[in-house]
Structure formats: structure tokens, C-alpha cells
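Q: Start with the shorter request: fold the first protein.
A: Done. Sequence, then structure:
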Amino acid sequence: MQSIEILGCRLDLLDADQATDRIMQYVRDRASAQIVTLGTEMVVYAQRDSAFRDVVNRCALSLCDTVGLLTVARRRGAHLRERVTGVELVEHLCACAANDGIGVYFFGGAEGVAADAAAILEARFPGLRVAGTRNGFYTFDDEAQIVEAIRTSGAGLLFVGLGSPRQEMWLGRNLAATACGAAVGVGGSFDVLSGRVERAPQVWRRLGLEWLYRLIREPQRFRRQLALPYFVWLVTLEQLGIGRQRGMSNT
């Protein structure tokens, strides 16, 4: 598998189909594989939080979720066909899980969101076995109970929608104890899949402007979008040799 490092974070050069195949193999192997859908905001956060960066780089797969990372990877010579967004990855994996009879657990979001997303996916993919759902509100003292509920559900595949960095850190602490073969941090994907948040039309996504569509619809996201120009600045410094730059590698 070919990968590239951007600002100290590993990015694996896989498209959605390749990523789905690998993740389903992890599930079948019961590999306890953590998968991150990496975005520019996460890479920026990793610059000031080494523990988060270490979790990202220990993941079995680190996939390209945003156009900023896709652009940088391509400019460095990577043959990366597309982004792998959380929503699309959930859909691909649920289709495979339904076909293979693998139980799926949905954890995260506001009350009822994970359950609604699971029900919609169950209707879309006949045969999908929803092993369980839970909202994302909990305290540290609840973690053991949540882990046990996932473990006893018999799920082979776990989706965690707690937002970043919370979901990555939670999985880093708890994935092995859930006995799931693979787990994906999916951010706000449950909100989209449940119909609570409208996704950008296809033309916006094709142009790489999904972030702008969401900003127009949700202006309160403005502060979060400030990570993008800062990311561009950091990458520019790295290109000039002021920061570290790493080439591609095969693993």
C-alpha cells in the first residue's frame, strides 16, 4: 500500500473501493483495525497535539477525506483518484456487511440520530444486521459500559460519530476491547445519513466545494474553516523546506 506524509500525518493512497475491500478483510480477520478519514482540520489539530497525531499514524488506514489533502497529495505525485468521505464509506461498508451477514454498530450523534441512520441504511441494504445503536452523550465513567454493550452485540464493524479528535481518541483507547474487526471514525455522517443535515449537491462535490456549501448553509462553521488557510500556509512552509517534508512510501 502506498502512502504519503503530509505535515507529519500519514495518508494512504486508496480510493473508496480499495479502502472498502481492505476494511472488510480486517473485519473478517477480526483485526481490531482503526480507520481514520483524515481531513485538513485534523492535520492542523495534529500539529499541536502529538497524542492525536500518534493515534492517527497508528491507524490501520488513514484515508483522504478532504479536497485540501487530495490537492496536496496530487501535487506531490500521488495517483489518488478521489476522496473517501465518511458518508460514502459508511454506505459502501454497509452494502458489503449486508451481503456478508456482518453485524454493524452505530455509536455517536444526538439522541436518536444513530438509530435513524441505521434504520435508513437497513432499508437501503436488505440483509444489513444492525447489532446496536447508541447516542454520543456519555461521561468517562460510561466508557466501560459502552464498550461492553458493543462487545456483547457481536458486531464485526463499528462506526463512531463523535467528531474529531474525540472519536479517534476513543477508538485508540477502546477498540480492542470491543472485539470488532474494524472501526471507522465517521464524524457527522450520521446526521447526513439520517436526513438531519442536507449534503451538498453532486455538482458542488465534484467541484471540491462541499465545504463551501456547508459553510453557506451553516455560517457558524466559519471558525472551523479557518483551519484551511492555516493548512495551506503550513504546507507552503513545508514545501519551502522550513517544515518537514516526506516522500511516498510503500507498506
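Q: Next, the second protein, separately.
A: Sequence, then structure:
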Amino acid sequence: MKYKTIIMAGLLAMIATGCKHDGFTIEGTLENGANKTLWLEEIAPDGPMFIDSIRLDDKGHFKFSYTPPYRSLYNLHTTENNYIVTLPDKGETLEVTGNYDNLSLTYNIKGSSESVLLWQLQQYTNDGSKILYALVDSVNSYEMQLAGGEIDKKTYDVKKKAMDSVYHAAFVEQQEYVCRFVEENAGSLATLIALYKPFNNRALIDPRDPASIDYYDQVLDGLEELLPDNPHTLHFKNTTEHLRSALARQQEQ
């Protein structure tokens, strides 16, 4: 009887350990988040899918635990436009900090190497956004000065040309970064996020550009090698095939 009890306890421990290993946890504390709601959502191949929501405690602390059917991307969001993307692996505990009201610009994360990769990508995007916002403010200021007679049209044109040059340099810098990100992180689902990154609502890797297919192929090759049966890989394979067909038709015209 004692022997059976020991075996049963061992089996239960194995089951408990297995469940824990297969899932992940995302927890943390958000400034200005006391008693507010946070949502966990999967970025599924066919679109966003609600997983859970939680009300933060009076200290802004939260904790999500989830066992996914396959490796995927997840976002935490406070509003539709205020979110962060994570890429947790089974058994990982992600620790998130930041400001609830401005999560994407203030968050930090640890406990998941690929989620940190996405954080680095977001930080670079944030740096580009700061340059963009400063340019917009400068152009608006020059337009007001022109309208108010403080500067003439020639001066405005010179300043606008300089701003356009800075914008172009910032775009190219962001573009080069995401291209390197795709090349250096082959096989990671994080490359799907990098591939679709925009700058000022303009695609950094433009699917209408024939050269873009090289980056789509790099992403697909990496995913098929490391995650061949993953739904994201299968969906992206179809996307790449459709893109290749569209580019072929474009070249025939």
C-alpha cells in the first residue's frame, strides 16, 4: 500500500511538473495601473484572439498563466493602440514593468530571451518615432512662421529640404535595422513582427518591392527549419507564395 502511494505521488508530481513546464506566466507591476484592466491576446495566424483579462491589484501588480497549444506571439494591452508584444516559451516566467498609460514606450521585460528580442526591436522603433515626432513639430513650426510672415518662402523651402533629408536618413536607418534583425534571428517568430514594421505608416520592407521577397524567403526558411509544423509557419508560407505570384504578375505587366 505504501509502495502504491509513493508511485501515485510520483505520477502526480510528474503531471504537475509537466503542466507547469508546458505553460508560461507573465507577471509584473505597472505604474499608474492600480485597479485597472489589462488584456492578454494571442496574435494568431488568422488575427488577434482574446485569451484573458485581469484587474491589477491596488499596487498595479498582475499575473497571467496560460498553456498554449503551440508556440505563438502574445500582446499585453491596455487599449487598442497601447500594447507590447511578447514571445514566451514553455516554462518561462516573464517579468514586465512599465507605465500602464504609456506601456509601449516605457516597458521593460526579462525572463524570456525572445521577448527581450522584441523589446529591443520596439526600443529601436521608439527611437525612430521620437525623431519623427520632432520632425513633425519642426515642420509645423516652420509652416506657422511662414504663414505669420516670420520667414519667407525661400527660407521655408531650405528648412523643409533639411527636414526631408533627416526623415529619409531616419527611414533608411530603421529599414536597415529590421533587415538585419530578420537576417540575424532566422527561425524566431519575432522576425514576423520585424518584417511588418512600419515607419510613419510606410512599410520598411515593402511587399510591393521585388527585393522584399528575399526577406520573406529568409523568414520562411528559418521558420520551416525550426518550427515546421507551427500554424504561423504554415500561414506565412501561404503569404509568401501569394506575394511571389503577385510580384510575378507585376513584372509581366
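Q: Describe the second briefly.
A: Strands lie at 24-31, 37-44, 47-55, 61-66, 73-79, 82-86, 93-99, 108-110, 198-199, 202-203. Residues 2 and 8 are 10 Å apart (CA to CA).
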